[in-house]
## 1
Amino acid sequence: MISFQALQSVADVIVARRRLYKQRLGLCHLNAKSIMPLAANSIRNSLKSRSASSHSANPKDTDQLRPSATLADLRRAASGCRACDLWKAATQTVFGEGAAKANIMLVGEQPGDQEDRAGHPFVGPAGKLLDQALVEAGIDRSEVYVTNVVKHFKWSPAERGRRRIHKKPHYSEIQACRPWLDWELEIVKPQVLVCLGASAAQALLGKDFRVTRQRGKLIEFSLAPHVIATVHPSSILRARDDESRHSQMREFVNDLRQAARVVKRKRSVH
Ligand code: SF4
């Protein structure tokens, strides 16, 4: 049984956050009553799957999902999440990773093929490019937290061969996964939230948001003291030639420098 207190805790946090930006996202209809099933679903399914996979479902798990929950508690609970169908074709949940009190949180769309196999975010080619860009921007990756709006890899088989082709998650899947990201934000409390790519930016800032028009700008939004949107590093890998790739990389690094400047300013004030 999932305790009512555990559900209430999850719902309270989500509702409080939704209230802050409901106008921007047009989520005025969401309230504790409508959020509760969402929170309940994530937790219930995660417990169900833990017992199904021969781990004993410990009633204490629900207690861990209180405001005092840690990232490790969340990661454990999310490992068995069945709140949407994406877990079926994926290898495992790829939860966020990084410093628990990181100043910068980077949010992408979803794990890719290599992340799905490894169980860690941003470890594939796009992750390596991100590492390089962070170094160039003067940001230490050990000081950031990286995650995705959707925690399972959505893919379809290639017409030929055994490649798994990335598929964009549906709005309903992004919404189903949202409680996990809200919890990550709640615990990490980053100074700067960086949305990587249009999917992450639109999931977090609203579907009218255009990265092409607003990239690299500091946006006022309730999710974090500062929010910046930029491209996803995988788009740089798809550049048509070297010249274009170098130029896109320069712009990407400049966007990340903006985040670095905010953190530096904050440090110099304290
Ligand atoms: S994508 Fe998110 S909501 Fe869907 S099963 Fe995975 S962790 Fe749960």
## 2
Amino acid sequence: MDKENKKTARGDVGSLQAQAGCATCPIHHAANLKKLGVDMENWDYVVALAGNPNTGKSTVFNALTGLRQHTGNWPGKTVTRAEGGFEFGGSRYKLVDLPGTYSLLATSLDEEIARDFILFGQPDVTIVVVDASRLERNLNLVLQVLEITNRLVICLNLMDEAERHNMNVDPRRLARDLGVPVVPTVARYNEGLEDLLAAVNEVATGRTKAKPYQVNYNHPKLERAVSQLVDQIKDAFPQVPNARWVALRLLDGDERIIRAVEEGELGELTNTRDDLEGIGASHVSQKSGFAQ
Ligand SMILES: Nc1nc2c(ncn2[C@@H]2O[C@H](COP(=O)(O)OP(=O)(O)O)[C@@H](O)[C@H]2O)c(=O)[nH]1
Ligand SMILES: [Mg+2]
């Protein structure tokens, strides 16, 4: 990539910022972010942070909450749970940093915790933090989250790394293809985070309704089996948020979901907002996760 293009790649972050922010609109103003640290009382919305390891989730978490969660790898880190608060656009948010995972198929404890939180905890918004310089690998998780919820925002982070590797990643194209908001960021240098908050606010308040890309399995037999199962799941567990996803997992032989259905516990996993603390709590270290 030549110098001119480089400028454009980095310029994208800035120009999208300018675009999202009618500069006079207070909702897009930096001063509008109030970091609340561990104060998470009376939150209006719950936001989950998901993503592959090392995509900058903790960096985003720290920038928004003002907390100093350890970034880097240390034993047990991934099963501690970090929560913090922030205020933006007149609303109070509780932010939950989920363990870093490459998938949500629950083949490990981390994946199980992340998946249970996104599916059963029903956060108002899930931010999927994506490494722009390793897009293909990261999209695996994005597509899985898209199957579970349409309340998500993609944080296309490490745009500087993508640029350094001469990759020209187009956030608008990605947003169009995936059908969800995509915000380019360089979290380490606080670039793009206001836009991220503006997008989160839009989804949380329901002003933006995503039409997420769904993997088409294109298989009549599979679709027939899925729709039969969906009807049965809805009858037995009317409170389950995404019966199609549960049906796909049952057909996939997902042991945890099969067990939950057999033991009639699937509905119980669906906690009310007030009971979010319970999600995955049995697996999660009692430590608050706010490592200094
Ligand atoms: N160059 C660059 N580094 C970043 C960016 N965001 C985070 N990092 C760095 O990437 C590393 C991993 O970040 P961390 O927040 O711990 O990732 P996590 O594993 O997803 O929580 C840290 O050294 C961060 O400083 C970014 O946008 N650009
Ligand atoms: Mg982290």
